[in-house]
Fold this protein.
Amino acid sequence: MTRKAANSRGTASVAPPRKGTTLQMVRLVCPDAAQCSLVSESFGLPVLDSDGIRDLHEKLVIDTAAALDEGLGERAMQIHLQRVVGAFVGSAYGAGQFYSRAVSEARDATAKSACDDRNEDVAGPVGFDSAAQRKREFAADMALQAHALRMAAEGAIAAYEQVVGEAWKPFERPVENPGQSVDRKAAELQMAALG
C-alpha cells in the first residue's frame, strides 16, 4: 500500500512573519563602549578597541563581497550578505542575553552575601574569592564579550549598507503552519485514548 505525502505548504494559511533580531535589540542587551570601559576599569580587564573591532568586521564583509563579486549576481549577493550579517547580529544578541542573565545572577549573589545572617556566602580561606565575587567577575567577562560581538555586528551592518546600497534589516520568514499539525493533533488524541 502506498500513501501520498500531504502537501503541507498548500494548506498553510497566511501567517504573520516571524520577527528577526534587529540591531536595536542588540543595543538594548549589549553594553556600549562607555559601559564596557567602566567594566574594564572596575575589574582590571583589558580595554577593548571598539572602533577597531567594528572597522575590522566592516572591512571583512566588504572584502568578502569583493571576492564573491564575479561569482554572484546582485540579488544573490544581497541574500548571502543578509544571512552573513544576520549571523553576526544573532550572535551578538545571544551574547547580550547571556550577559544580562549573568548580571542578574551576580546581583542576586551580591545581595545575598550582604545579609549578615547568612554564613554560606562568607569568603572562604585566604586566596579564594566568594561565590558572589566570582559571579561578578564572570558577568564582567560576559560584558566584554557581548560588547565585542555588538561591535562586530555593527561593522557587518555598515558593510552591508555599503555593498548592497540599502539599510540592513532582518529577514522575516512567515510561519508556515501557525496551528498544530495534523500529526501533532493525532498524537495527542492517541495519547489521550491510552490514558
